[in-house]
Amino acid sequence: MAHIVGDRAVVLGGSIAGCLAARVLAPAYREVTVIDRDQLTERDDPRRAVPQGHHIHALLARGQRILEELFPGLTDELVGIGVPVGDFGTSLSWYFNGEMIRKTETGLICVAAGRPLLEARIRQRVKDLGNVTFRDRCDVMHLATTTDRRRVTGVHLRDPDGQAEVLDADLLVDATGRGSRTHRWLVELGYPQVAEEKVKMDLTYTTCHYRPPLPFDPIGEQIAIIPVATPQMPRGAIFARLPDRYSISLTGLLGDRPPTDRDGLLAYVRSLPVPEIYRALRDAEPMSEPKSFHFPASVRRRYERMDSFPEGLLMLGDAVCTFNPVYGQGMTAAALQAQILGRHLQQGAPAADGYFRDVARAIDAPWDMSAGPDLGFAGVQGRRTLKVRIGNSYVPRLQAAAVHDPALSGAFLRAAGLVDPLSALMRPNIVRRVLRRRPAVGE
Predict the structure, then answer these.
(1) Rounded CA gap, 200 and 206, in Å?
(2) DSSP strand E in 126-170: where?
(3) Model confidence pLDDT, tens digit, residues 325-368
(4) Do 56 and 72 contact (CB within 8 A), yes or no?
(5) In 3-state terms, what secondary structure has residue 441?
(6) Does residue 430 lie within any of the structural domains?
(7) pTM across the whole model
(8) Looking at 348, 372, 396, which one is the last position of a domain?
(9) Co-location of 217 and 354 in the same domain
(10) 367 lies in which domain range?
(11) Can you give the three-state secondary structure of 349-413, one letter per residue?
């Protein structure tokens, strides 16, 4: 029997992070209410409040494993409706500086569902729990607190008819994403400003969807071709096969903005180091107009370092840390945090200090895997620690050696998929292979 720790938990935000929070809260609270400002429908179209939903999203291997634990059979459900699923090491072609790393079986599952479809399926699973209620088209106005402001007791909101309401909560979880206002509300309540780390890369990515079949299809039965942006070749892309379409997401850093007109977009595609992508798209039929999304900076809020924090309040997902979306870490980082929240709930009502300490440790790896490479670009603004400088010297050498060595490909993809720690890339057997000029195939 589940251990009940309270009557009601309220989650702000009904996207994937909010749904994951609701999933782990449901066994611990008699009632869970999810609030979202957008209209939540059963359709799997991109939502107005999630402008990045138009673009390709990646679910890393660790994220897939956690989702399968929280929602058993989800992967098979997606396969059943035509979602491409494959191995991260064989179904995706990874290019660094124009060279593809050697393909190898990793046992890591890649699920190419697309953000809107995955979100819709997860939300339906959460609705099926029975004690979770979704309230959409509600605007969150402010936190409700005790008179001494030491405890958050709920939230002030405005319903779809414009009526003000206070919704009481034993626990409030902010999963409103990168637009979270909680850090500002805390200052207004007299708490210190949370410390932030920023990596400013001035990213723009532009996505266009195409009708299948393609006149020329270099993907075939695989899932994606991914030329990764590097300081030597700063334009990157993900070209992927999704359930009902092919999609290209182009990335540009430091003000390089992939165009949204057809000719400009194709010219940008042609500048990529993988010519097969241009050949595939030059005569392909677009399903819609290309859309762009601007992402100025990765932001990590250090709630674990705050000297004082109100009881009854937690944050999860992009409200804690917003990653450069090119690395596809957002959904997996939210899943890791939901897993941590679930563990804390097993001990009773979660305390903010312990929760945020554990979240910080879980975020270290994805932050290092994205912020570090971004800081390899000379124009990107951020703190370049010794660890960052060492990583930006070593990892490109590993990737270059992985062109010939499948063992290095596998090691890199396990770390990038957050299955193995980043330190695994520094194990003696890996370092030895990196330092060889041309490792023998299959060694």
Answers:
(1) 19
(2) 132-135, 139-145, 152-158, 164-168
(3) 999 899 999 999 999 999 999 999 999 999 999 999 999 999 99
(4) no
(5) coil
(6) yes
(7) 0.93
(8) 372
(9) no
(10) 6-59+115-195+302-372
(11) CCCHHHHHHHHHHHHHHHHHHHHHHHCCCCCCECCCCHHHHHHHHHHHHHHHHHCCCHHHHHHHH
